[in-house]
Specification:
Length: 94
């Protein structure tokens, strides 16, 4: 598996708002040493932008597929982002 730098945009669907999903995502991403952001969207989903080594991004993606214990994830859409995020840490933006 490559440890090349990767940037992804992830949409997480299901019961993912009001259950601490953003906070726990920030905690996981920070623990993994990733940079990026997480925010709630108006449609009830959560958007995650994450950048870091491939193996660490993959670890976050695996976690996002279930989230914290109060969440009920029904779908995860992942798309590659070209370029680099201009962040130093991982933040909650709303």
């Amino acid at each position: 598996m490559s440890d090349e730098e990767r940037v992804v945009r992830v949409l997480v669907h299901g019961h993912v708002q009001g259950v601490g999903f953003r906070w726990y995502t920030q905690e996981q991403a920070t623990r993994l040493g990733l940079v990026g952001e997480v925010r709630n969207l108006d449609d009830g989903s959560v958007e995650v932008l994450a950048q870091g080594p491939q193996t660490r991004v993959d670890a976050l993606l695996a976690w996002l597929r279930h989230g914290p214990r109060w969440a009920e994830v029904t779908g995860v859409e992942v798309s590659k982002v070209n370029g680099s995020l201009r962040r130093r840490g991982f933040v909650i933006t709303n």
